[in-house]
Amino acid sequence: MAKPALHTEPIAAASGKLLSVSDLHVHFPRNKSGWFQAPEVVRAVDGVTFDIARGTTLAVVGESGSGKTTTALAVMRLSPITAGHIQLGDTNLGALEGEALRKARARLQIIFQDPFSSLNPRERAGATVRAPLDLMQVGTPAQRIERVAELFNAVGLRPEQQHLFPHQFSGGQRQRINIARALATNPELVVCDEPVSALDIAIRAQILNLLARLQRELGLTYLFISHDMAVVEHICDDIAVMYLGQIVERAPRKAFFASPLHPYSVALMSAVPTVHGGRKHAAQRIKLSGDPPSPINPPAGCRFAGRCPVAEPACVSELPPLREIASDHWVRCRRVDLVDGRPHAPLAMPAA
Fold it and tell me: Measured between alpha carbons, how far is 60 from 302 in angstroms, rounded to an integer?
């Protein structure tokens, strides 16, 4: 298979769009398994396209190995880009190198999944939050001290806690430190890589409410990575579902949760636990058989066809395009049709 070409032509920043990702590929070469074997390539991300409007949240969801975190790392330029185009405002991030890339990092920051391992255990909390300001040479030393105090207050930490080490904080407080550090340089885009998955249930709501409040007050734009549909429904404006390196459905939050269209999206939604009728709901959820195909040798057709309960022979032979089936509702499934002007999902959600 021919290697996809790296897009270098500029894409004009559309009005209201902060981030535009076009045909993103991230492939990782593997060592040969034998002398006469062809080199293998892991297709972690294989043709992902999406936009995020300024001041909104796009959630990218999917099971482990779907490529959602690799997509986020590629946007941050923390993972190599094989092909595609990443545009932040009027800046082509994929074309930046060296000092230009270092300066651009002030405009986009990341909140990692594990609030403890992402902090230096030998560095005090105040110094951790001040580190981006020192590295980017933002303001005077006095202004940096003032900025750190503002950030601690903004995320709900006390001023005297600047002198403590990470082990002296709870998990939720450590994530607040990570959030403060991410906001230090006044970024336009914040990538949230499963920021609450390592926290207790009671603390998750506090962190999500904090992120929502900061977005309202500061006009932040989030790329939110998660596998928890309940969390996604609470915080996102738009949602993209990934499976084996590709987006299979993308839609506004209300449209998606009211009527998911792709069979994989329906299966994900059926697995969301509910408070009422828990055992009955669990018994009725859609159970997928088998494992996802290998990203080293993905199938020629739909990548979900081998596990799809409603797959047809044509699904196996031909990869369906990501098409707009309704206003701003995109789906990669040939079985999704319009019935009386409305999109019809081939796989129905279980009865409540």
Answer: 19
User: How far does CA 84 lie from the centroid of its chain?
Assistant: 17
* Measured distance CA(188)–CA(107) in Å, rounded: 5
Which domain range does residue 277 map to? 261-352
In this structure, the answer to whether residues 267 and 339 fall within a common structural domain is: yes
Whether this prediction's pTM lies above 0.85 is answered by yes
Q: Is 266 helix (H, G, I), strand (E, B) or coil?
A: helix
Phi/psi of residue 28, nearest 5 degrees: -115, 120
Instruction: Please tell me the number of Cα atoms within 13 Å of 63 on its side-chain side.
Output: 14
**Residue 10 within a domain:** no
| Count of domains observed in the chain | 2
Tens of pLDDT, residue by residue over 249-294, are: 999 999 999 999 999 999 998 877 665 655 555 556 787 888 889 9
Q: What is the mean pLDDT of the chain?
A: 89
CA 89, CA 84: separation in Å to the nearest integer?
16
Whether the CB-CB separation of 253 and 238 falls below 8 Å is answered with: yes
- 192 in the same domain as 295: no
